[in-house]
Amino acid sequence: MQATEDMNEFFKAVHTSLRFQFHDKLEEYYVTIVDSDTEEIVKEIPPKKMLDMYASIAERLGFIVDEKI
């Protein structure tokens, strides 16, 4: 896919990379932008802390159920 290749080339030039992470509780992906030299996470989209908080609230309200009845 040309758009993906173009994005990869852009991120190489600025020494960063995109990584798609899977949030286990929400079963959704989020993106991390990582500094290629230091492996430090520069940004998360959406922020993982926000996803964790949403998952915690949803679990308490019963939106996320681990067992089948």
Automatic annotation (TrEMBL):
Q: Which domain of life is it from?
A: Bacteria
Listed Pfam families: FlaG
This one is known as: Flagellar protein FlaG
